[in-house]
Design a protein that fits this description.
- Helices cover 32% and strands 12% of the residues.
- The protein has nine helices and eight strands.
- A six-stranded mixed beta sheet has the order 3-5-4-6-8-7, sandwiched between helices. A two-stranded antiparallel sheet has the order 1-2.
- Helix 1 packs antiparallel against helix 4 and helix 5 packs across helix 6.
């Protein structure tokens, strides 16, 4: 099978990769990831290889890997939830009803402490859908997923593959979180992820994207129902509602560990191939 990391870039895409903090050359020989100094702070490793005399052949289509069944999540002690039951008919709601219901939800302990729900933004008919970890303080204040520095990095990552959160049509993307309320100073419980999952499932059903990119540990747990380490789940295609799913690092994690930016770029290429049906 062809190397899924090989990809022909035009000048615009190379410029966008520079914004993301990744510089890439595509040689014929086996590539190696080596650290290299960069003018940008916290720059990612540079992918380099010995020079070759012959031109690189065009990228050959690759077969879509078979979906890997997700293992069941580990059993967790029961969580006492003081909220009300989830509203009926979430799986049949339109966009307006779904957003209003999520904003007024009282089905788990997160609801009683929220200042503002974070539902989602972008093109509701996009080919790409990005699902991130639960919202943080910046997201709650703005009422929009992926805010602050993590949001800026996500925007650069999207630009590198020709997408923008404000765009519609071919360059559009829909962005949301695994849960709609911020866990105050802690991680979400499995109970909270499970309670909010019907909202996320309905968003996916309404968008019907060609690929879903899940970013971060809790987004992976919610969508793939897997507790395996992210490093073992990335680099391959999974499925959710029959839609290809690519797991990768959350931008906030990439800010803490810039060396993983090159891996995240490879994951975006895999998602791009899924959209193109390669």
């Amino acid at each position: 099978m062809s190397d899924p990391t090989r990809f022909d870039l035009d000048e615009r895409q190379r410029a966008m990769l520079a914004e993301m903090g990744v510089r890439v050359w595509w040689p014929q020989a086996q590539v190696q990831v080596q650290p290299e100094a960069s003018a940008l702070p916290n720059a990612a490793p540079v992918v380099s290889a010995p020079p070759v005399a012959t031109p690189m052949p065009p990228l050959a289509p690759v077969a879509t890997p078979a979906a890997r069944p997700a293992p069941a999540l580990p059993v967790q002690a029961a969580v006492v939830v003081t909220g009300k039951p989830l509203a009926d008919g979430v799986d049949r709601m339109d966009w307006a009803s779904l957003q209003d219901t999520a904003a007024a939800c009282q089905a788990c302990d997160l609801c009683g402490q929220r200042k503002k729900s974070v539902f989602g933004v972008g093109d509701v008919q996009a080919d790409w859908m990005v699902i991130g970890d639960p919202p943080g303080e910046d997201e709650e204040q703005q009422g929009e997923p992926f805010a602050g520095q993590a949001g800026q990095l996500l925007d650069n990552m999207l630009k590198a593959v020709g997408l923008a959160r404000q765009a519609h049509g071919e360059g559009g993307v829909y962005i949301t979180n695994a849960v709609k309320c911020r866990p105050p100073g802690r991680n979400p419980t499995l109970q909270e992820l499970s309670t909010c999952a019907p909202y996320l499932a309905r968003q996916v059903a309404l968008v019907q994207p060609k690929v879903i990119v899940v970013m971060g540990r809790f987004a992976v747990q919610s969508v793939l129902q897997s507790s395996e380490p992210l490093g073992k789940l990335r680099g391959q295609l999974h499925t959710f509602q029959g839609i290809p799913v690519v797991a990768t690092y959350h931008p906030s994690s990439l800010l803490r560990t810039p060396a993983d930016k090159a891996k995240a770029w490879v994951d975006l290429l895999l998602a791009l191939k899924a959209v193109r049906g390669q």
